[in-house]
Amino acid sequence: MTLGVLLGPQRLAPTIDQELSRWGIPGQLATITAGWQEREAEDDELQEFLGHRCVNLRLHARSDDVFGRDPELFQAHRAKQDTLRHLQDLYRGRLAHALDAARELAQAPAPSDLVEAEREAAVLALRLVDKQHLARTRKVQRQFELTYHPASRPAVDEHYRELRSILGECFALLIAGGHVASLLNRMRLFQLDTLLASLPRPLPVFAWSAGAMAITERVVLFHDSPPQGPGNAELLGHGLGLLPGIVVLPHARRRLRLDDRERVSLFARRFKPDRCVALDEGDRAVWNGREWSAGPSTRQLLPSGDVECIADLPESKEPVAQEARS
Amino acid sequence: MKPAIHAFLEQGRPDEGAIDAFLRSHGFPLVEGGRATFVFRGHADAVNLRHWIYGLESSQPFERAYDTDLWFHVHEMPPGSRVEYKLEVIRNGHHEWIRDPFNPHLAHDPFGANSVAQGEGYARPAWSLPDPETRTGRLEELWLTETPFGEPRRVTMYLPARFRPSRRYPLLVVHDGGDYLRYAALKEVLDNLIHRLEVAPLIAALTHPGDRLVEYPDDPRHSTMIANELLPELERLYPLMPDARNRCLMGASFGAVASLATAWRHPGKFGRLLLQSGSFAFTDIGHHKRGPAFDRVVEFVNAFREAPGRPSERVYLSCGMYESLIYENRSLVPLLQTTGMGVRYEWVRDGHNWENWRDRLQSGLSWLFPGPLWMVYE
């Protein structure tokens, strides 16, 4: 992708208009609001804000149409989702223990020359649990694709062609937030990554909140203080992978205890070498096809436990170079 | 710090006007740190605080302020506490139990209403109150025509806001559903918690018992009705998730016994249990002293303790510290943990009442059926 712009939440203080102006995007815009699920079509505010130049791709409604016309695919998709939910539950159980071990060791009163190696090992164990979960979810997804070939089902193909035609007439794609799994499923059903790659000219993508999460490589679900318990950040699975090397954290100020250095440190170490980037209102991170740059207020979670503006970090003057991935 | 009532009375015998002014200038019960002052004003030979705190004498005498008609009692009230009570006023040998005329807070239950003293820091959760912003679900009635009890049974169904037949939902079976609706604001709670994305949109089946004291303590007819008749009927009529971890049995007091007993008799069918102030009486030796209604409960709990199996996957348990059942509930936790089930428990400074059960619904339901808060990033 030649231009990917990730933004903080747009609901209260939208900046998407400025961003489109900054990049000189003219004319018609394609939008995806499938993260709003049944409310997908309720995009009047967005339309008005952007001067009624949006064409909503209606991926949620299209997927309903596909499932209505292709019951076999619907049942298979449903079964796949059941399996993924079950896997997520099982992973969550292992994850809780791995996180407990890492947190316990972080506070263990032992000489640093003894405990450091143990702490490192605990983080490695955590990364292994994550890695295995990613592999399992990917396998389930692949199995579904190999067995049912959703891309070549007539109902999907019909929409795919229509979407390609619409996107061919647009100057940018905007992906709004919402329910990240639902959004990702719809984009995956219509192979948004393949679709974008097939266009005659590259289409800039502007995405915010769940939209931003869904197009990165790994989707991390997080909330440090949910009502139901400890709030262990967990991987949902692979994202569309349009943008590399970044874990996106929308509403970080509200959802994460950014003043808890231990939690921040563990988070950053767990997901490195990806940068864990907080995307609050007004924040932005830009991928220009080679490297990342960030807005002046955009912050990153660091292994030290600090949360610093990316632009202020001595090792990462803008543009932020993509780090080698292990 | 000295309670305000003591400081007031240290100034000497107050006249009518001074008492009026003192009472007007405070709300009662007057909570000051870890204490609460209760007052009564009027002619009486004696006044007692009759509270429902297990472990304390249930009757606490008021003192009379000099020879005036002002009576008071200062009572320990740890922060966060909720205590239900009445005042016992004794006149000419006649005992009358009344609600505290100075206290606007009432708790309702099938037997009427009690006054409620709220310790420092307690506030009714916002999610238990009607919220005009919240999209509301709807209730509809269903009849199970054939049951092992030989009579039809009514079930009130809760369908969440934006219910769509093309989606699938978890199922929550609520014992004493009518009481949960009336006294624990269950509909408002479900509406709000679902709206706030804290609990997954779910379908609830609110059951209405016949004689609950007979049916709930491990009566096989009850568990058969729930597992083999209600569940298949609901699966036929509503779009429900097909697996045990998306089915929960919930209940309070004897309803908690019914929930555990049903899951125990039908392992693998209900993967979630929400047990509030369960009447889990048991004996290690000898006979229990809780009365005949508990005979079958004790029989069941003793059998369960002997061979718990693994009736469910995840259990949320709560109990008030001021209930007589706190010992039984605390004893149950380590046993449940040995079964390999996920167990979460919560002990709170409250009693055996519907508001306690209402206040625990957020933590219980959001753990058993976490909502999409985790998934939604607007």
Question: What does this 3D model show about the protein?
Answer:
The complex is a heterodimer of chains A (326) and B (378). In chain A, a hairpin with a 5-residue loop joins strand 13 (299-301) and strand 14. Mean pLDDT of chain A is 93; it is low at 315-326. Chain A is 45% helix and 16% strand. Chain A is α/β, with parallel strands linked by helices and 326 residues long. Chain A starts with a strand and ends in a 17-residue tail after the last strand. In chain A, helix 3 (59-69) crosses helix 4 (71-106), helix 4 packs antiparallel against helix 5 and helix 5 (112-148) packs across helix 11 (261-271). Chain A has helices at residues 16-22, 44-49, 59-69, 71-106, 112-148, 154-168, 180-189, 192-197, 210-214, 252-255, 261-271, and strands spanning 4-7, 29-32, 54-56, 172-175, 178-179, 205-208, 218-221, 234-238, 246-250, 275-279, 284-287, 292-294, 299-301, 307-309. With 378 residues, chain B is of the alpha/beta class. Chain B contains 11 helices and 19 strands. In chain B, strand 5 (63-64) and strand 6 (70-76) form a beta hairpin. The chains are: A alpha/beta (326), B alpha/beta (378). Chains A and B meet through helix 4, strand 5 and helix 7 of A and helix 11 and strand 19 of B. Strand 5 of chain A pairs antiparallel with strand 19 of chain B, so a sheet runs across the interface.
